[in-house]
Amino acid sequence: MFKHILVSTDGSKLSGKAIRAAVRLAAATGAKLTGCYVVAPYVAPMYGEAAIYLPGLSAAQYRKNGARAAKKALAAIEIEARIAGTPFVTKVVYGALPWEGILRAARSGRCDAVVMASHGRGGLGGLILGSETVRVLAHSKVPVLVVR
Q1: Share of the chain above pLDDT 70, in %
Q2: d(Cα 70, Cα 111) in Å, to the nearest integer?
Q3: Phi and psi of 119, rounded to 5°?
């Protein structure tokens, strides 16, 4: 059915549920698995119209923290895939919009399915915060399994 499944993670507990579902699906179909974590690009902290620079994280510190967060989030995929004996790779994608990074990773890896979690924000919360899952669903050319 599927040959290559991409599972995205943000390191949350809910993403762990999606990871377990993706690993089970990959094991059942004999598919390989790609774990994806999207890191937003560094933006220097600025304040107000005068664009006064405020000290904060340097670009190097930001990259280091992003790499650490990605490694921790992707470790959950590695553990689950190794236990199930499912072949896997992990990928860190850099992009301002997580949904675009997820779809770019799926296209570049020639994945034929995407598995991801949804936090289930509806109504005003979903409108204000937006939903990466909804955007992936709207723009994906491959099936998307949403785990809640």
Answers
A1: 84
A2: 20
A3: -80, -10
pLDDT per residue as tens digits for the range 106-120: 999 999 999 999 877
DSSP 81-123: HHHHT--EEEEEEE-SSHHHHHHHHHHHTT-SEEEEE-----H
Torsion of CA 51, 56, 61, 63, to 10 degrees: -40
Q: How far apart are CA 100 and CA 122, in angstroms?
A: 21
Q: Which helix (H) or strand (E) holds 18?
A: helix 13-29
Reported as a pLDDT band with limits 50, 70 and 90, residue 148 is confident
Please tell me the total number of residues recorded for the chain in this structure.
148
- Whether 127 shows a pLDDT value over 60: the answer reads no
The C-alpha atoms of residue 65 and residue 129 are separated, in whole angstroms, by: 23
* CA pair distance 28, 89, nearest whole angstrom: 18
Mean pLDDT value of segment 30-35: 97
The CA–CA distances, whole Å, from 146 to 6, 25, 71, 119, 136 equal: 12, 13, 23, 10, 10
Q: How far is CA 18 from CA 43, 59, 94, 117, 119, in A?
A: 30, 31, 21, 5, 11
**pLDDT of 104 above 90:** yes
